[in-house]
Amino acid sequence: MLCFAITHTDSLARAGHVTTAHGAFDTPAFMVVATLGAPKGVTPQQVRDHGGQVLLMNAFHMAWRPGEKLVQRMGGLHKFSGWSGPILTDSGGFQVFSLPGLRKVTDEGALFASPVDGAQRLFSPEAVVDIECALAPDMAMVLDECPPHPCAPAELSRAVERSSRWAERSAKRIEGRQDAGATEFFGIIQGGFDEKLRRRSLEATAALPFAGLALGGFCVGERIEDTQRGIAFTAPKMPADKPRYLMGMGAPEDILFAVAHGVDMFDCTLPTRNGRNGLAFTSRGKLRLKNACHAGADVPLDAACDCYTCRHFSRGFLRHLLLAREMNAAILVSLHNLAFYFRLMDGIREAIRTRRLAQYSADFLARCKTESTEH
């Protein structure tokens, strides 16, 4: 049983914790993306040691390889992956948007050609619930249709209506499964940047017995002004007693904006994807290790950071590893970036507890508003 408790507020911002069958995590929370069961470039223990509390895996990709039945035989995602803490699985709704050449969407569901071997499989709302129950995460997203941006008003409205019907079918499937209680499901709000459709989707989804609700349909090519307007309109209207999750958006400035409007959970590939490409987040801005000014620099990535990477390695050495295509470069910079994110979330939670989030955000953005190349 998922339990969500709010302990502190600062205007619309909330700090608290979510308790699951595999432990609790503090909110606002950053979930580390582990699409196929493992974070890219770092071990689960390294994530835990540096402050990570919850992982996000992808049921769509896990269903293709290694397959949910194999994971179930191996004891579920926690035992299979070696991560003992909370896990959330995404459903494949975003793949409806991101893999248009591999799927056909109808009211029944999304028929996909496997990205592994081309085999076809129908991901219906009921099938996705069954897949996620077999994987046995603590939290799981129901199937929705994430429309592209821009799209015609009729297409956007159709996606909202379809997502609402799929949510109803998902809820019925969950109710009918005796083993579904081990996994708590979240509904997803769509509607693009049409406030009337967002409200309609929110009302329909909030009426169903989901443990949490998510903001979907952002980060699909829109202007940041539209993103912020959509978050500011929708998030405060979501049920106050359930966790609110902004799907797929995790730049630090996006997190700060969304937290200020009442969002509790985030995920993003930025820390590890940027780490693999030699871009580090620091307390004074982004740092690109490929820049020549870092050759021979005998200083850490960030003097304000106490992660394993910053305690033991210089920028000059990390740049050498990156240019030599040594895999340790990606590992060490990714680890540092994750530590940066966990420290950001710690700071946000403390700022909410002391009711100074606005000042904390302003100070953070002032320090990090430019990309650093020489500090």
Question: Which structural class is indicated by helix and strand composition?
Answer: alpha/beta
Q: Work out the number of β strands.
A: 16
CATH topology of the largest domain: TIM Barrel
What share of the residues lie within helices? Answer: 40-55%
Name the beta content range.
Answer: 15-25%
Number of domains: 2
The shape is globular
Q: Show unreliable segments.
A: none
- Sketch the major β-sheet: 8 strands, parallel, barrel
Number of helices: 15
Strand order of the largest sheet: 4-5-6-10-11-12-13-14
Describe the structure in your own words.
42% of the residues lie in helices and 19% in strands. It has 2 domains: 3-268, TIM Barrel (Alpha-Beta Barrel); 274-368, no CATH class. It contains 15 helices and 16 strands. It has 375 residues and is of the alpha/beta class. α8 (195-206) links the parallel β11 (184-189) and β12 (212-215). Strands 4-5-6-10-11-12-13-14 form an 8-stranded parallel beta barrel. A 3-stranded antiparallel sheet has the order 1-2-3. Strands 7-8-9 form a 3-stranded antiparallel sheet. It has helices spanning 44-49, 59-64, 68-73, 77-81, 93-98, 125-135, 153-176, 195-206, 224-234, 252-260, 270-276, 308-312, 315-323, 327-353, 357-368; strands at 3-10, 13-20, 23-27, 29-33, 55-58, 87-90, 103-105, 110-113, 120-123, 139-141, 184-189, 212-215, 244-246, 265-268, 279-282, 285-288.
Features:
TIM Barrel, alpha/beta, 375 residues, 15 helices, 16 strands, 8-stranded parallel beta barrel, single chain, globular, 42% helix, 2 domains
